[in-house]
Design goal:
The chain is an all-alpha fold. It has one domain: Hypothetical protein af1432 (Orthogonal Bundle). It has helices at 4-24, 28-37, 50-61, 66-74, 88-108, 119-126, 137-147, 151-162. The longest helix is centred in the N-terminal third of the chain and has 21 residues, at 4-24. The termini are far apart.
Length: 177
């Protein structure tokens, strides 16, 4: 995979998923695996329905568990009729995916990056349509609702989960001048 941004996005979602698995007493490795693999096919097949259907075929061929494959398939809204989000794992991935992308975008425009990032600032950025325009705000809100976590709490949880891997995400604090 050559796309550094995509790799970093997958790492961010993996980290958020691991954090939630720990909080919820779920299988941390399984949740992390889903977060890490959810977009592995996106660089090669970025359009619907190829992504994530092509990836699911590859994962099946390589022996990945069906619940991992199903969760990845269910994160695509355009496949919701075939793969509705039914498990906590499915809903967790959907909740973390778009939000992690948005949080990284928010961090990039802050000199302190993730350090000191506040929920109120993220919510304010969500109202700015021109900022990170490719991120679907409705998906962020719907994801938190489906996951059963209040939006503000979900944002705070994801911010905190990303801080330990800030450097891996290219979000180490900018040096002061």
């Amino acid at each position: 995979m050559e796309n550094v941004s995509l790799r970093r996005h997958m790492l961010a979602v993996e980290q958020a998923m691991r954090s939630y698995a720990t909080k919820l007493g779920e299988d941390v490795e399984r949740w992390g695996q889903v977060g890490l693999l959810h977009d592995f096919d996106y660089e090669r097949w970025p359009t619907a329905p190829d992504h994530p259907l092509q990836g699911s075929t590859i994962l099946r061929e390589r022996g990945y568990p069906e619940d991992v494959i199903y969760a990845i398939l269910s994160h695509a809204d355009y496949l919701a009729d075939r793969y509705p989000r039914r498990s906590l794992l499915d809903r967790g991935l959907y909740a973390c995916d778009e939000l992690c992308g948005f949080l990284v975008a928010c961090a990039w425009v802050r000199p302190e990056r993730l350090e000191g990032m506040q929920v109120a600032g993220v919510l304010k950025k969500m109202k700015t349509k021109g900022f990170a325009a490719a991120v679907n705000r409705d998906d962020i809100v719907r994801g938190a609702e489906e996951f059963g976590v209040p939006l503000e709490e979900h944002i705070a949880n994801c911010i905190e989960s990303l801080k330990p891997i800030a450097n891996d995400l290219g979000l180490g604090a900018s040096p002061s001048v």
